[in-house]
Specification:
Arc Repressor Mutant, subunit A, Beta-Lactamase, six-stranded antiparallel sheet, GAF-like_dom_sf, DNA-binding
Length: about 240
């Protein structure tokens, strides 16, 4: 058959996973969908369960396992980083300010990509820097669309309020003026994955003297456009 790789056991395992793509299946359902012998289908499903690629639901039926979504998330992160370089460079060139990409990691946010301003005073956030989720425009973005309970917890001790985050959701961008660091302003917008969930925040940052006390007025559209390009790249490759 056309989709044979020549490695029989892998081809049969792929049949099992493909059969589960349409939803939970009993062993009899797997046998019917794959055409495999009952003992073979059972043996493969249990082996895949061992590797967390298959799991069971409350009724004991086979379903796709958590390992697949972990791998998909890692693939999505790689796609995001592969696309981020040119998008951040363009954002830096359009605004004249340093551009960063942040992802949430537990109770912190981490700078996973950046394009530095080429000259003059910089607001450097090196790639790999771990910053607080309690202050800054990208923290507001990464927090604003969280489910209510996590949002409530995250607001405790934060420099921004629930009302501010409501405004962020309405506008689709956030700004901060000296919130994380005195004298520094920033503007951020959300990057969304194929499921429309916010997976990252794109930011530009620089001194208040340049960005003024209304940095969103100057740079919100450029940041939104950059975030949109990254979201579109994730949709195209992972939709």
């Amino acid at each position: 058959m056309d989709n044979s790789s020549g490695v029989g056991v892998l081809d049969k395992a792929a049949l099992v996973l493909s059969a589960l793509e349409s939803g939970p299946a009993t062993l009899a359902g797997l046998v019917a969908a794959t055409g495999l012998a009952r003992p073979t289908a059972h043996r493969l499903a249990v082996a895949l369960e061992h590797h967390r690629m298959v799991a069971r639901d409350m009724q004991g039926r086979f379903i796709l396992g958590p390992r697949l979504s972990e791998l998909a998330a890692a693939a999505g992160e790689d796609r995001l980083l592969a696309t981020a370089g040119p998008v951040l460079t363009h954002l830096r060139d359009v605004t004249g300010e340093s551009a960063q990409l942040y992802r949430r990691q537990g109770d912190m946010r981490i700078c996973v990509a950046a394009a530095e301003r080429l000259s003059g005073l910089r607001d450097t956030v090196p790639v790999g820097s771990t910053l607080t989720m309690k202050a800054g425009s990208s923290a507001q973005i990464l927090m604003a669309w969280e489910e209510p309970e996590r949002l409530h917890r995250g607001l405790q001790g934060a420099r921004f309020t629930a009302t501010a985050l409501s405004g962020v959701r309405r506008r689709g961008w956030a700004q901060s003026i000296g919130e994380r660091e005195p004298g520094v302003a920033s503007v951020s917008a959300p990057v969304r994955g194929p499921s429309n969930r916010v997976v990252a925040a794109v930011s530009v940052s620089g001194p208040i003297e340049r960005l003024t006390r209304h940095p969103g007025r100057m740079h919100a559209q450029a940041v939104i456009d950059a975030a949109g390009r990254l979201s579109e790249a994730l949709r195209r490759s992972g939709g």
